[in-house]
Amino acid sequence: MIKKTCLLLFAVLVASGYLQAQTDSLQQLFQAAKEPGVKVSLLITMGQQSAETDSSAALNYLNRALELAKDHNLTKERGDANLALGKFNYEHFSYDSAKKYVDASLAAYRESQDKEGIARANLQLSELYEEQDRSAEAIKVLFENLSYYESINDSLEAGKVLNRIANSQNYLGYHDDAILHYTRAMDIFESIGYQRGVAVVLSNMAIIYGEEGDTRKSVKNYLKTIAIYEGLDNEPNLPSAYNNIGNDYTDLKMPDSALYYFNKSLALSKTRGDLRSMAFSYFHMNSLYNSIDMPEKGAYYGNKSLELAEKINNHQLRINLSHSLSESYEKLGDYKQALRYHKQYQQLEDSVYNIENSQVIHDMQAKYETEKKEKELVLKQADIDRQQVLLTQEARLRSVLIGGMVIVLLLAGLIYRGERAKTKAYNQLSIQNQEIETKNKLIESALAEKESLLKEIHHRVKNNLQVISSILNMQSRSTASPEMLTAIQEGQSRVKAMALIHQKLYQTEKLSEIDFKEYAEELTDHLSSIFESSTGESIVKTVTSPDIKLDIDMAIPLGLILNELISNAYKYAFEGKTGGAISVELKRVGEDQLQLEVADNGKGLPADFNLEKAKSLGLKLVNILTRQLNGQLTVQSIGGARFSIVIQNMKVSV
């Protein structure tokens, strides 16, 4: 054992020394180089070589390369440096930064008309899209690459792109299209003798067979894949192949075979430091032990997988693990932990960044449950009505008894039996009062339950609107039309404006109204997160309003108007600017009048702007909703754009 450890340490030291020697050699070449372009290329190479051993040094080399390319106005080299920085950030799970650098590299390559550079940047961009569950956008850029590689007769790269396209189609559920492109890729790889490519396609086709329920055919493909991978040097996909075939053996109720392959994957992943494969190995072992009623081991491996999933920021794996760990602890009888993970699963599942293709089924189930709750509410209301009738009858009876008691009191002085009758009547009255008090408590309880049901309805409506938003998001992934994408995104924004109203309603004590200022601030923050992240603008947002409460009939049209006016300001007011300001104000201006003003300090409206002839759906919607509210809309363009709406005969709480 000691001898093996020493040999391993020696190998690491030799490798480190070799890399250092390479870096020193490149440093010498860098010092001797005269051409700025050569210096940029050498800095990028040193950064890539240092990435595995010294991240800070690698980042320093790559940033120096980018600055040097900018200083000497080297467009292609600027693209190379940005692309290298994008790959570095992607490998360190910093996807937002990676996207920024890859976009910059694409811009540089397009400026220099470097088609090969565009293709390399597109490949990196497609990986980012796939990591962020944006498969439709990944497919779009991959088809652009396919055309390029076919035009230069590069069969190897064309086959790789076809395989990537099929992966994204498989993820979206288009199995027939995926099989078609996998087959094309397989034909290319076999014709040029590229065995690794054949193995990758076999593995990907096995995934489809597994999803369609043909597990034995899936296992057959994985065995062929593993046989090819094991004959290659340091194949990176081998741990994943071990995990996948182990998962199939779990489905086939063959736990020994499944555990054998999970352990092989885990051992290989640990040797390579492959955190993602390790996380999935632990997850599959968790599922396996849960399925064979060994929840203690299931919980142990589930927690190890969850720790790694959080480290690599894999959101979907965290969702699956939260659900699986809840099952493990429930089987162990630790219901506190089971409930904790179940709540964590619901919170992760509820977020819009994590809606799956099965959401339509979930939508139907939610609709069924909502209708069920509504029926229960009707029944509860009928029960309350019956109880109120009984209460009225009891009140009448009490009046009769009180009248009888008065008569008894008048006769009390006449005879002793009258005194006894009075005492008896008093006792009966006490019993009736107790019964009435009990009935009152029942009514109060029923009313509280009704309030709870109303909150549940608003919550369900909010959830259903979020489901609609998520379905729109899924639809956007399957279209390449910019106009269609913009229309879908605008629809999502309007759905969000309505969902936020129902969210505010069930979160407040009084279910019939919402606070306008709180609602407007949350809606403004939501819109700024969409537009400012995509444009890089920094907009100052101000919401001014006294303590005005709106009911739902007024809040929804006002919310939609606010959504359209703020969105228009972000899209058009600050073109060519890096910042600006948007203000929102709602105030009382008369006995039963409200005035809503939305203003910006942007470039203002066109000189020939006519609100009545506006063709955009947003402004048409503003006009329609203003008329619905019996309001008057005016527009000014002085130091920016200002939209003012005065609403007549509206009752609000202040």
From TrEMBL:
<dbReference type="GO" id="GO:0016301">
    <property type="term" value="F:kinase activity"/>
</dbReference>
<feature type="transmembrane region" description="Helical">
    <location>
        <begin position="397"/>
        <end position="416"/>
    </location>
</feature>
<dbReference type="Pfam" id="PF07568">
    <property type="entry name" value="HisKA_2"/>
</dbReference>
<keyword id="KW-0597">Phosphoprotein</keyword>
<keyword id="KW-0547">Nucleotide-binding</keyword>
<keyword id="KW-0732">Signal</keyword>
<keyword id="KW-0472">Membrane</keyword>
<dbReference type="InterPro" id="IPR011495">
    <property type="entry name" value="Sig_transdc_His_kin_sub2_dim/P"/>
</dbReference>
<keyword id="KW-0418">Kinase</keyword>
<keyword id="KW-1133">Transmembrane helix</keyword>
<dbReference type="InterPro" id="IPR036890">
    <property type="entry name" value="HATPase_C_sf"/>
</dbReference>
<keyword id="KW-0067">ATP-binding</keyword>
<feature type="signal peptide">
    <location>
        <begin position="1"/>
        <end position="21"/>
    </location>
</feature>
<dbReference type="Pfam" id="PF02518">
    <property type="entry name" value="HATPase_c"/>
</dbReference>
<dbReference type="Pfam" id="PF13424">
    <property type="entry name" value="TPR_12"/>
</dbReference>
<dbReference type="InterPro" id="IPR011990">
    <property type="entry name" value="TPR-like_helical_dom_sf"/>
</dbReference>
<protein>
    <recommendedName>
        <fullName>histidine kinase</fullName>
        <ecNumber>2.7.13.3</ecNumber>
    </recommendedName>
</protein>
<feature type="domain" description="Histidine kinase">
    <location>
        <begin position="456"/>
        <end position="651"/>
    </location>
</feature>
<dbReference type="InterPro" id="IPR005467">
    <property type="entry name" value="His_kinase_dom"/>
</dbReference>
<keyword id="KW-0812">Transmembrane</keyword>
<feature type="repeat" description="TPR">
    <location>
        <begin position="239"/>
        <end position="272"/>
    </location>
</feature>
<keyword id="KW-0802">TPR repeat</keyword>
<dbReference type="InterPro" id="IPR019734">
    <property type="entry name" value="TPR_rpt"/>
</dbReference>
<dbReference type="InterPro" id="IPR003594">
    <property type="entry name" value="HATPase_dom"/>
</dbReference>
<keyword id="KW-0808">Transferase</keyword>
